[in-house]
Amino acid sequence: SLNMFLRSRLLLVSSTGPVGRRDLERRFEESMQKFQQSVSALLFPPIAARPPRATSAFQYFQLSRQTATYPNAKTRLQGLTEEWTSLTPEEREPFERLAAKSKAQVTEKRERTKGRQTPYAAFVKAEFNNIRQPGQRVGEVSKALATKWAAMDAAEKSKYAA
User: Fold this and answer.
1) pTM, 2 dp
2) 3, 11, 83, 118: which sits with the fewest CB atoms below 10 Å from its CB?
3) Cα–Cα distances in Å, from 56 out to 12, 73, 96, 124, 131?
4) pLDDT by residue (tens digit) across 109-161?
5) Neighbour-count burial of 95, counting CB atoms closer than 10 A to its CB (0-12 exposed, 13-18 middle, 19+ buried)
6) Cβ 55 vs Cβ 99: under 8 Å
7) How large is the greatest C-alpha to C-alpha distance in the chain, in angstroms?
């Protein structure tokens, strides 16, 4: 098992010099913590790494009803869902407006942070299917596109600049 492996590694380290039992156990615990942190970092990426999402109208409704008391989370969600479905379109309108604003902000932020496409990438995107013949490999198409791009003058290439 993993614990036995780590313990054996620590025993090898401890065989190089006098090490007390407490020191050995401390090293083992530190090794286990580092291992668990590395595994959890792989399995659960930090929230900042996830793409931003817009807040929905229902989420804004939930935030407005924070003071509503329910016995547990499940009944809270069920109760809020029932309240939400019973709202008229006029009552939902402020939440829908907030959700639309949130979506516009997230979309604008994504567009701002999105990498700019190079003129060559725009050329490839526009011409790939025009050049490709049935049964032709992607590598062959890429070579043909690169040759065509190299033969173009600056005026023709500027059409593909963003």
Assistant:
1) 0.44
2) 3
3) 56, 19, 8, 37, 43
4) 877 766 677 888 888 888 888 888 888 888 898 999 999 999 999 888 888 88
5) buried
6) yes
7) 77
Amino acid at 103: K
Burial 54-73 (b: 16+ CB within 10 A, else e): ebebbebbbeeeeeeeeeee
Give the up-direction half-sphere exposure of residue 137: CA atoms within 13 A in the CB hemisphere. 3
Q: Indicate the length of the chain as a whole number.
A: 162
Q: Which of 70, 73, 95 is nearest to 84 (CA)?
A: 95
C-alpha span between 22 and 81 (Å, rounded)? 55
Tokens of 27: 């090293």
Taking residue 28's Cβ as centre, other Cβ atoms within 10 Å add up to 16
